Amino acid sequence: MATTTAKEATAFTKLKLLTWKNFLQQWRHRGQTSAEVGLPVLTMSLILILRWQISPQYRDTFLYPPMPASTLEHSTGLLANMRLTNLTFAYSPRSPVLEDVVRSSLVNLISDNAQELLPMLVETIPGLVDLLPPGSWNQTLAEDMLLSSIRVQAYDDSGQLTGLYVEEETTRVVLAAVQFDDSLYDCECGHDWMAGRAVRCGVVTMSQLFYGCATQLPRDISYSLRFPERPRTFQFLQQGGRSWRSDLLFPVFDTPGPRAANSPQGGNDPGYVNEMFIALQHSISMELISRLADVDLSGYQVNIQRFPYPSYLEDYAVEALQYLFPSFLMMSFCYTAVNIAKAVTLEKEMQLKESMKIMGLPTWLHWTAWFFKQFLFLMIVTVLIVLLLKIPWFTTEDGISGYSVFTNTPWSVLIFFIGLYAACTIFFCFMMSGFFSKASTASLFTGLLWFVTYMPSFLLTLDVNYSPAVQALTCLAINSGMSYGFGLLLAAESSGGMQWGHFMDAPSTDVQFVFGHVVIMLAVNCVIYMLIALYLEQVLPGAYGVAHPWYFPVQRSFWFPDKSRSSNVIVPESNASEVVKENDPTQNPVGVQISKLTKVFGKNLAVNELSLNVYEGQITVLLGHNGAGKSTTISMLTGNIEPTYGTTVILGGYNLSTQLKAARTQLGLCPQHNVIFDDLTVEEHIEFFSRLKGYSGPQLEAEIDLLIEKLELQDKRKYQAGGLSGGQKRRLAVGVALSGGTRVVLLDEPTSGMDPSSRRALWELLQREKKDRSIILTTHFMDEADVLGDRVAIMAHGRLQCVGSPYFLKRHYGVGYTLVVVKGESFDERECTELIRKYITNVHVKEDRGSEVTYNLPSEYSHCFVNLLTDLEAKIHNIGFKNYGLTATTLEDVFMSGDKAGRRVTGFRLLWQQVVAVWLKLFLVWTRSPWLVAMQILVPLLMMILTLSVLNVITTLNDSIFRRELTLNEGFSRTETLLSYEGVVGELAARAARAYAAPFAEADPDSTALQWVHSQTPGDYYLEKGQDVSVIATMRHTNLIGASFNDSAAVAWFSNFGYHDVAISVAGVHAALLRALVPDASLVVYNHPLEATYEDQSRSGIRIVAMTASSADIEDVDVQRTSARVESRAIANTKYRRSPYTSIVVIRLLKLPIRKAQ
């Protein structure tokens, strides 16, 4: 078939061709395609079922009753789990004044809650009432018994409080610690500090001197209430939050309606009322106020009351979906992600990617086509998902209609975000494909890491306040970023949905990492994943590519390659003058001109100044043992690797050093393995590669028809390549190399795996197709080289030994003829040799092996062969031989003459050589990869250290250790506090109201403002203002607290949308009462939880780490044994056989010192 010239295909044409190929392969896998579409739709349908089961409903206005600030009514469940007969309160620093304050506070607290505590005391001491004299049991006696059972423990300073809750049992005994300023330590406890003998106090501070060394309370006083960092509701009852959330102001995700709607006291997260924090805060603060003002306030009531909440549409599904929806979406895309990574890696595994690259397909087009196809496909899935999420499927029994999963968020925002996630998924799969050379391995690890990348999202739900930088790093894991993004989208549903232009709006003042940041991080992920994929493509190209060093991005030669191929590498002088070479055929034009082609790998000279001409219309056969340099030469001819120096020019004009792209359009390759697409038909293969060469229209149709006919695959024209036999696949692979009018064809063992008849048919095809082509063929079949080779080139040790026609080489290396005599039982070798010497005087025995004797007969004595053989047959019985044969010199004799093999060893020497070889292999692997030995020794230790460090970080990062000032001064912004009073001007209510308002007058009104409420309570004002739907979402973070005063009582109002609203509100009322009575005094309260890490958790963590480290060592042993078995199987079919246990035994011996080191 004569070749024709076609115009090179444009990049856009190649992109369309690759996209066509990718979509065609996708279509051929109809089951997989249906699953990739159906699984996301089915998964999202489960979300619809959840949405249907949890329907929204209208809730009436929530009105909450007031309750005393000192109440313990809601804490009986906790008290029942505590040691009431041994209950302890701690305080610091040690001081009679402070101890008197604490004891008096406890007396007031118990007196206010005697009705709730008495039944619990009776249950704690069985038979208590029966033991007392009749009529002696009364409330006063019970209170005295409670007070006598409560101990007050003093500590010298705040440092001694640190280890208070180390033991879990302590949390059941010590209710809380009250920490005052260390300057209040009593220095006069039996010591003459003026005489300089302050042994227990240390240095005396000025504040101690001023206040008489803590003999009286200062006017500016502050204290911290220190409860266990884990609230007892969580610890005892496994309910509520697992910390005090002292580093946060608001929940990360808002939900519609009031938080803990059915709890007048504000619920259990963090549960200030239920944990008895408010009761103790109120008792201590009121005691301090009474002492500083010298006023009895026992008759002045302080209540707490939640702001009412207007009627609203309650939707618990939004809260549930914040945790469930991301996991469902992650699982719905998992199957698709695995298939993408598998498909991309499969092309690398089957050498399809490298072959297309050699035939003129740029790498960037390969990635672009894959992304284009996958993105279009995933966008179809995205649109279907958004349809399910946005269509208002549901109507409630109450007549509420028009609601969906995402009722308020626009369609476009959902399509944009899921589409961005889909794009990030594709790039993630590209990155994963770069790590592996096997499609099955890539799919396995992609599936595993797909779930692993979702795990960091759980960190965002823990009670830890991570910085925006940590949250951004967490979003580098694709599914964690998606999870956090959808959490913010669902949170925005309660306030009108996520709208364009509001991506950078924070849902609360605590949240600094917003939806816009998630979008940015997913876009950054796309770039990072693709850069890693491109990097791995160069460093880990697979079994058929050439790897660059890991530091190649910083090499100048990578960005600015030297087109001249000059090199300073010192190369030994070649044996060009010693090459046995036949005169070049002058009648044929040169198709491939190789000039001094050299390749050096490190210190290894793979090809040494190879100079060879390949002529058009001829087949040049390249022969050589393994390691002779054939594969390296082929790789340089295809442009797969760059030569150290030397040039190659094809078709008289394309220099591979400077015109590689143009040269590849004329290059066809048939590798040793079948490089075909199993899902494309025979016709589609020829069409694809012909189009890649620039063919189109009638020229393309003629090429397809003619080539299929030449390949004798007419009846398989519409068959998919995966269903062809081995011989038919090989013929198709050769056809791919010949398609598109390729003028330079490289065939690497094209007939391997074919039966004799198929080989003969392929020989005939190549003989016909060599016209106008330059064909380079490698083979291990000498008869194939003899039949097909117009010229044969033999290489050894990277050098060209000889080149010429088979006849020329046989004549040059030929030893004449070979006479083989088969011995009989009475064979006389001396008589046989003497008979032959009568005709050929200088004959000698070439080989005497077993039952055969071989003689070399020089060709110049060929005229004597007739008489010799006649005489030999006549004396068959005298000599005692059975038969004989006479053959001419073969090409295999020439090949062996060009590169002689060494002598084989057998027996014990062979076994010892195998043992030495295995030891040498392992030694070289370990010395060249020192990280392997280091990993085996250090990995268990590093895993122990790393895991324990993670446990320690998780413990130390717990937000409850943060010290929270119970005011609006820390972290809040744009708040509006409500205030009202009723009473006689000049009385306590009026003074307290003015004292409450005074700090706001001095503050920045844009940061914190005060709203006086006249003729109504703050609760009524809040409810009236909240009727406006447009402002209710804003009120969650602005109207947090309030206060109302009258002459007999005060009410601390709180909204409960913030975690600390109730404690801040109570502290504000107390501070106002103090300033109303003592204008120059101040009172500040802190919530500073105490660390509570228990020893049992550390022990369990160590056990987990120990098991993990042990598994690493077991895995290493299994890998070594598996490697040995695979290696044994790999050589099982060769002539150099050894026992499969040789490697295992040697490896075990070598492992002994490593195990000792571990």
From TrEMBL:
**What does the entry list under GO cellular component?**
membrane
| Topological relation to the membrane, as annotated | Multi-pass membrane protein
Pfam family for this entry, one: ABC2_membrane_3
Query: Where in the cell does this protein reside?
Result: Membrane
Q: Which residues cross the membrane?
A: 323-344, 364-389, 409-430, 442-462, 468-492, 513-536, 933-954
Single Gene Ontology MF annotation? lipid transporter activity
Enumerate the InterPro entries for this protein.
AAA+_ATPase, ABC2_TM, ABC_transporter-like_ATP-bd, ABC_transporter-like_CS, ABCA, P-loop_NTPase
Keywords annotated in UniProt: ATP-binding, Membrane, Nucleotide-binding, Repeat, Transmembrane, Transmembrane helix, Transport
Q: Where is it chiefly localized?
A: membrane
- The ABC transporter domain extends over 592-822
Q: Please report the name of this protein according to its UniProt entry.
A: ATP-binding cassette sub-family A member 3
